[in-house]
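Batch manifest, entry 17 of 40.
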Amino acid sequence: MTSAPTAAPLASTVGELRASGHQHKDLRTEIRDNLLAALREGRDPWPGLHGFESTVIPQVERALLAGHDIVLLGERGQGKTRLLRSLVGLLDEWTPVIEGAELGEHPYAPITHASKRRAAELGDDLPVAWRHRDERYAEKLATPDTSVADLIGDVDPMKVAEGRTLGDPETIHFGLIPRSHRGIVAINELPDLAERIQVAMLNVMEERDIQIRGYVLRLPLDTLVVASANPEDYTNRGRIITPLKDRFGAEIRTHYPQRIDDEVAVIRQEAHLVADVPDHLVEILARFTRNLRESQSVDQRSGVSARFAIAGAETIAAAALHRATAQGEDEAVARVVDLQTAVDVLGGKIEFETGEEGREEEILTHLLRTATAETVRAHLAGIDLGLLVAALEEGHAITTGEQVTARDFLTGLPVLGESELYDDVCDRLGATTDGARAGAIELALEGLYLARKVGKETEDGETVYG
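Output type: structure tokens
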């Protein structure tokens, strides 16, 4: 979460800017200095990124210190775009620009004909505006219909119609990359750019100038180009032309979170939950997602996005809110019984291998049960549930379901004499409210079912353990 911006500096002309002692830095030096300052002070320059601390982040930092353009390679949902957007935090909060300049040039270093003319005419009276770091980041999703005019620029017929000649460089309308002068331009899904568009980027990436139709403009662009790509597109289909690949100084491979804690942190950070989702349910979703990434039945070239688990958490929260509203519960708390609702709606987010047609739901259900069993072992190991098993064997039945309230569920639990078993389960999972307690005991029951110690029947949205 970014803090509120501070007030912009007061200098409003080049003369006042010089008097303030302001020094001009090129973009790469600015980023390098700010990164080094953060490292010296122990500040995290990469807020909200989990699981990259010892792998991706050090590579990115080395690339930035070297002043390299960067391309991130990784499957969908690995946080590539978030990482690119976090680069904004390494820019100065405020930077001066020539007021009204089309490319946002620094007052000390105009590069267009119009800005040079104004600087010569006005001298120290050249007006200065201040641009916040958030305005110095531009992002473009590469699509097959992206044109050279979009990225680089083209002749503006309106300016020609105003009376300028075609040979006048001021007839040019600049595209996204020149307009990102002294800033960062990010291109997502770079392989989707048509090859002729990639050719147009070659000069920008290497010589830092642009060519538009018959014009050759020697504009010393000060731009950091970063991009993302799926490695399948990047390496196997060869959809990025070799000269453009060669111009990126750093190619960095991203990955999905390698630890459960990081996966859970991503879900907690990104999911917008309309009800309480206990930690053990988020962990089940995280393990479920990891199991899918390791399954031979799932097309791993496509990947299983972090958005899968995020959408799952939002779905079970919605199921809990639906139940609480329909049944008049005071609090909406997700329970194990809500997990099936995620399976019902998320199957379309997974690409299965060709031979698995018709088995999709079976695969998802199996892997969800595996994730649930792993979570039960992680949190309830050592608690003797024998008394609960004995009660069910004696003929007791416990009913739950998508529309069964937590209070009704708890009221229907068999009495276990003087046993504190229920309290032990709830204490282990930190459950204090009725909704959380019902969810904790449901997890224990599901664990017993998956261990084949009790039976379970599900029909018409109602589940009976017995």
